[in-house]
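re: ur question from yesterday

yeah so i grabbed the chain u mentioned. its 508 aa long if i counted rite. heres the sequnce exactly as i have it in my notes:
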Amino acid sequence: MISRREFGLASAALACAPAHGVEGPASADARLGAPKTLNDAFGFTPPKSLAEWQARKALVREQVAVALGLWPLPEKSALNAVVHGKTEREGYTVEKVHFESTPGHVVTGNLYRPTAARTAGDGKRPGVLFAHGHWANGRLHDAGEPAAKAAVARGEESDLERGRFFMQALPVTLARLGFVVFQHDMVGYAESTAIPHILRSGVAHPDGFADVAGELRLQSLTGLQTWNSVRALDFLCSLPDVEPTRLGVTGASGGATQTLLLAAIDDRVQATFPAVMVSVGMQGGCVCENASHLRRGTGNVELAGLIAPRPVAMSGANDWTREVMTKGLPELRQLYKMHDAEENVAAKAWVQFPHNYGQPSREFMYAWFRKHLLNAPGPVAEAAFTPLPVAELKVFDATHPRPAGELGAKELRAALAKASDAQLAALPAAERAKVVAGALRALLGTAVPAVGAVTASGHAPTTTPAGLPVGTAASLGRTGTGESVPRVSHMPAGFDHATAVLWVHPDG
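ran it thru and got these structure tokens back, copy pasting raw so excuse formatting
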């Protein structure tokens, strides 16, 4: 072992190295480039083999779960679901629902059911979760007459009713086709009012999730909404008329982001249709779509790939998804071909329309779900309907008030942190070690590399101050990562590699 004096001399030499010519190469580390934004390119290169993909898929799913604060998946509490206020219409019924995704946090929505009796089987039907996205008031959205007339004029909708109330047209049609549909509110939309959704004037809302304290606990609006979606599936599965092995999820824009994330971590989802979101370009412009660590080294095309070989179809419009059929779909087809499931991925873009979930893309989705969840292939034409007045869709009224004890953001975050700490502490030591290792992999974006994965580029020995060992400048990295960490080695004559001192310089 080297003496204190030798260590001190070596350290001093390393600290003074630049002044004496012992310098590593200028760092070309790929991680030192400009930060990546949501509007940069997020391409996806299919793996060379299914085995390679399975390993990659496990890492990305782990990363998604950690980023969402759902690693490990939280323990599920009682939903305490309340379903009331049934309204009967032509071919379907609408009910009002609220439940607790976690104690003190209320999820609200509408439940659409078919009225036609089943004539075969056990009477159970496939269930579909509908995430509404960032349209004003969400499931209660009314686009207004001018916007509806414009949609009809450009061929995006057939009539004013669908142009104004397309948020109702979708679950109504699915119910008429034989699906049980639950349309739930995003956090801060419609009747989900306990926690605000957006930033206020570009600054983190004091009553929300978008702040430093939340980031440090991996508590985010993205994670909370994903957990609400997991519990919404639990609610659907709890209904006596829903078949839990035939579940679909759809949504447009921010609702498509929810669709991707839910299907990525929950294998109960058997068919998906994320509309106007999947692309190699913009990845979602809201705090409810972007959590720290979520898209590091990945993007929405690969997130859609995590669903494979389960069916996924996508729509595009005159927005960032306009090229989905040439940038995204071909790569996903290669991936699905590895699974012998090419028929389980599809996409179509309507570039004549702006960002939308209009009637053509809805009809594409209906046919997709009928094929994969009802085994009934063929086109579907959406029929006209009479929308319910928005007031009749609202969950809470004088007879059914909001549940007592509903938590605001501060109280909910404290409760979530306490539950998470208790869950981790209760794990057996071996299981806890696995959880921590997975979290570190995701948070650091790396794992301890195998010996063969480490690369070293060396340089000729460099003259050092008199009396000190010769120094060698080099850089270290890992194959295929673009990493390049400079190092300087000092080895005295006769060094036997048995003992060494590693000193990390404060400048990196």
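noticed a couple things. Residues 66 and 439 are 6 Å apart (CA to CA). also Residues 1-25 have pLDDT under 50 and may be disordered.
anyway ttyl
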